User: Fold this.
Amino acid sequence: MATLYTAEAIATGAGRDGHARSVDGRIDLDLATPKEMGGSGEGANPEQLFAAGYATCFHSALQLVARKERVELGDSSVGARVGIGPNDTGGFELDVTLEVVIPDVEHAKAVELVERAHQVCPYSNATRGNIPVELVVTDD
Assistant:
């Protein structure tokens, strides 16, 4: 792979109850374990950051695929839900649901574009075979 860009971030403090900062300073935030996991919930958490990154990256991949096919996406959006829970080996694992809204494209074509974007998106390529990723395509 010919690397085009490298992001760098540093986590300090107590892990999920610490602080994260990108080296360039564009991200600089306190972290907190979610209330559902016994924490205060008073800061961001890794699952939120992953959800934001995946949603943004997938939307870019969708736009790329649509442009190549000369399809206008209109007011499209991608939402990501990232779940975390215990696995069978004493650790934790993630699952993802991507909710893609493409109101101005016929449903079958929208599904085709989303499936193609799933093959292009770096997050999808990184997670494929590692965690469940569900694609949900709607027009509203």
